[in-house]
Amino acid sequence: MSLKTKPGAVIFAKQLERMATFYSEVLLLPVTHADGDHMVLESDVFQLVMHAIPRQIADTIAISDPPAIREETPIKLFFPVASLADARARAALRGGQLNPSSHEWTARGFRACDGHDPEGNVLQLREPAP
């Protein structure tokens, strides 16, 4: 067993498979492990764990359609993508949304845009700046 670990994040999800599919397809991260209560998406340098919220708690959570954006949280995850335009299209197909291109900005060698996943969690995607 290697003692080296990858940096990563855990997202707790009411709809495990829907959320894992969203992140897998938008970020182009393959699912490397799946069982009844979590799915692992992974690149060579990062691991994103989707963890199911226990049923008794999940049943008390309502996700509207479209989802209410959870902006009142102290954490926003950001992820690299090759193309914001391509990621925007993939997000829309999987129940999330990336803000319009008019909301993009450039800083420190990347172009960024905020959006949200199918459960309303705010995220930011970044592509290399020209």
Roughly what fraction of the amino acids lie in strands? 25-35%
Shape: globular
- Which structural class do the helices and strands define? alpha+beta
User: How would a crystallographer describe the biggest sheet?
Assistant: 5 strands, mixed
How many separate helices? 3
Order of helices and strands: EHEEEHEHEEEE
CATH top level assignment: Alpha Beta
The CATH superfamily is known as: 2,3-Dihydroxybiphenyl 1,2-Dioxygenase, domain 1
Computed over alpha carbons, the radius of gyration is 15 Å
CATH topology: 2,3-Dihydroxybiphenyl 1,2-Dioxygenase, domain 1
Oligomer category: single chain
- The termini sit apart by 40 Å
Summarize, please:
The chain has 130 residues and is of the alpha+beta class. The protein has helices at residues 16-27, 55-58, 84-93; strands spanning 8-13, 31-34, 38-42, 47-52, 77-80, 97-98, 105-107, 110-116, 122-128. The chain has one domain (8-128): Roll (2,3-Dihydroxybiphenyl 1,2-Dioxygenase, domain 1).
What does this structure look like?
The structure is a single chain. The chain has 130 residues and is α+β, with helices and mostly antiparallel strands. The chain has a single domain (8-128), classed as Roll (2,3-Dihydroxybiphenyl 1,2-Dioxygenase, domain 1), CATH 3.10.180. Helices cover 20% and strands 34% of the residues. It has 3 helices and 9 strands, in the order E-H-E-E-E-H-E-H-E-E-E-E. The strands form 2 sheets. Strands 5, 6, 7, 8 and 9 form a 5-stranded mixed sheet that branches. Strands 1-4-3-2 form a 4-stranded mixed sheet, with helices on one face. Strand 3 and strand 4 (47-52) form a beta hairpin. Helix 1 (16-27) packs antiparallel against helix 3. It is globular. 23% of the residues are buried. The mean pLDDT is 95.
